[in-house]
Amino acid sequence: MGRRATHHDLKKQRPLRYIIWNNSLFVIGLSNIYLCLTLILAAYNIPLNILKITKTNRKWWERILWWEIRRIPYNIIMYFVGLLSFYIGYITIPLIYIMIALGLNVIYTFGWIIELLFVSKLKNENRKIKYPQHTFISYLTLSALFVLGVAILLWH
């Protein structure tokens, strides 16, 4: 059994295949960049008003439910951001991304914990309504930048 060929070996032995492989990865990467940016920008104008909050005196379980329902689109968007970062960083072992995803989801949970402990006790009704919306969008953007930043750091 010989060793497995790397992309450096492919570059030396079959330069045309290497060029085609790298260009196809580049095109896939560009399409994923477009998709990720579209999804993040769409989060600012979600057509179904998924981020809208109508009442300020929500029960504790309504606050938790608001955050947990939005965890699904958050994870879908982050999946595509992670996929994009695979192409940027040329990662073959995704263990680091699994750990990052778990960590980001744990931190995501602090959104509703902070809302229950602190924001719900505020007297300013406008802040009670705006906190979840702004925090969700801000955390989504920062999470995407963090994952892409890790990919750029791992890029050779």
Sequence stretches where pLDDT stays below 50 over 5 or more residues: 14-26
Helicity, as a percent range? over 70%
In terms of quaternary structure, the protein is single chain
Number of domains: 1
Total strand count, please? 0
Q: What percentage of the residues does DSSP assign to strands (E)? A: under 5%
What number is the mean pLDDT? 77
Quick one: biggest sheet? Answer: none
Q: What is the overall shape? A: elongated
Compute the CA-based radius of gyration: 20 Å
User: What is the structural class?
Assistant: mainly alpha
Topology as a string of helices (H) and strands (E)? HHHHH
Q: Tell me the distance between the termini.
A: 28 Å
The total count of helices amounts to: 5
Write a brief caption for the model.
The chain is mainly α and 156 residues long.
Q: What features would you describe in this structure?
A:
With 156 residues, the chain is an all-alpha fold. It has one domain. The chain is built from 5 helices and no strands. The protein has helices at 7-13, 15-44, 60-89, 95-117, 125-154. The two termini are 28 Å apart.
Task: Compile the SSE list and pairings.
Elements: H1 7-13, H2 15-44, H3 60-89, H4 95-117, H5 125-154
Helix pairs in contact: 1-2, 2-3, 3-4, 3-5, 4-5
